[in-house]
Amino acid sequence: MAKYDRNFTDELRERLSIVDVVGRRVPLVKKGQNYWGCCPFHNEKTPSFSVNEDKGFYHCFGCGEHGDIISFVMKSENVDFRGAISELADMAGLKVPDYKPRPADVVAREESFLSIMEKSAEIYYQQLFSQSGNVALEYIRRRGFSDEMIKKYKLGYAPKNNIIAGHFANTRQDILLATGMCRRGEYGMYDFFRDKLMFPIFNARGQIVAFSGRCLDGSEPKYINTTDTELFHKRRTIFGFNFARDAIHRANRSIIVEGQIDAIQMQCNGFPETVAPLGTALTEDHIAILCKANRNIVFCFDGDNAGRKAAARACDIVMPFLRDTSDVRFAFVTGGKDPDEILKNSGTDAMKKIIDGAISLTDFLWNLANTNFPVLTPGGRVSAEKFLKQKTEKIADVALRAEYDKEYKSRIFNQWHKWKRTERDVIKINLPDIDVITKNTVIFIVNKYPEIAERYGDFLATLNINMDDNVVDMTLDEKSAEKYIVSLKLQKYITRLQSEKKALVSQLLAGADVQNKISEIDAKIADATEKMNTLITI
């Protein structure tokens, strides 16, 4: 019988969880590390059908049936191998490749690729400990890497010359070019990686299929990776997964960080279940592979804007993979640091505190809605509700999706719709009442321009205005609207300063030494008045 390319069947096994495949036909309950149900291949009342998600196999202790996702679909659906592959491809969202055998020359070509990559790693490792690799070796040791770590992860150094092209000078050029290790120039073959600290990239089976090179001179981009090849696809390869696979099973979770060095340091300092995408490009394929190993994931990103955006994208990607057994969380490393720095400067306990303090996906989404939309306004609340609905609609599990919707409806009612009463309770400053015209103008601006409402939300909350009141439309463009709010804010600020000055003058008359404070307030009043005059002339 002809066979599909092994890479495609492997990809199906990587993308699809056997629990999901079997669970479409057999109700499963998790007990310990396995899932259990009644065998679909013989009649039974007591579940003896075991499914191991980590290993990707099922086994019935009653009738002895055993296999993987492909054999299960063949037997349960009564279809041939080709039919099973087609059905699984539909589930995985993949296109079935041409139905053809793997020729011997293709197999030989693949083996030659792997041989070139393995030998290249050996050469780079040797170069790291040579004189030419001194800078790279000093750098990686400053980052806290021991010789044992360097050896385990096969780190190396690509020198400035064409050492790989020279070593494989007698290898067929088409094969060498196809590995991505060399390119052809005007004067012959040259190395793709030169003057780089080298990180081998392993596939799930522990074979080196590509490299990631780090620049040492401060130039950008900081990292360059092997381009996609026949054996390496960036969007389907997870850095460190070959080392973390068993640890993910033991820890009952995976941790995703942003870079290779962070992943290695985490693995070697108490968090062996850590992996990283190659660069910041987290993909659906990465999540599918990790969810097949374990559906509990902690995303650990930097707390800066880039890290927050990466977390928001990760949230989008993970939603369709959620199940009632999933526990997805988000941890942020703040203060301009990353996991590597935390581990070096503060130790494993500090990093553990960050991971243990990760917030749930439910809270992360809720925080996104409150941050990205002006929920103090009716329009902002509507936009935020639509945002949450759009996210939860991606959840494939209907019952779980309903629970998320129920949770957010409860929060919306108890927090957003009670905002005015709650906010009034915490207001400590008694401000003079504003006239009706000012009140109506503010309400119009808040509803017409939610971006302005978001920028000046803290100030608007102090006005004690019911923003839900209806007002007539006004002819006020966005620029004029913002000038109005700024001028109102300055007026309130000046009024408050004048009130503080009045109180200080009373203290001065009573003999208190407050002259300097009065002078400071006078300067603030003058500054605010100047700003007000400037605003009027714009």
Structural overview:
With 538 residues, the chain is of the alpha+beta class. The chain has helices at 6-15, 18-23, 69-77, 81-92, 104-128, 134-142, 147-152, 163-167, 173-178, 241-251, 260-268, 284-293, 305-318, 339-346, 348-356, 361-372, 378-392, 398-416, 419-426, 436-448, 450-455, 457-461, 478-509, 515-537, and strands at residues 29-31, 34-37, 49-52, 57-60, 66-67, 156-158, 182-185, 188-191, 196-202, 208-215, 223-225, 254-256, 274-275, 296-302, 327-333, 359-360. A 5-stranded antiparallel β-sheet has the order 1-2-3-4-5. It has a 5-stranded mixed β-sheet with strand order 13-12-14-15-16, sandwiched between helices. Strands 6-9-10-11 form a 4-stranded antiparallel β-sheet. A hairpin with a 5-residue loop joins strand 4 (57-60) and strand 5. The radius of gyration is 31 Å and the shape is globular. 32% of the residues are buried. Residues 419-433 have low confidence and may be disordered.
Q: Write down how many β-strands occur, each being a DSSP E stretch of 2 or more residues.
A: 16
Determine the mean pLDDT: 84
Largest sheet: 5 strands, antiparallel
Strand order of the largest sheet: 1-2-3-4-5
Rg of Cα set:
31 Å
Give the structural class: alpha+beta
Tally of alpha and pi helices: 24
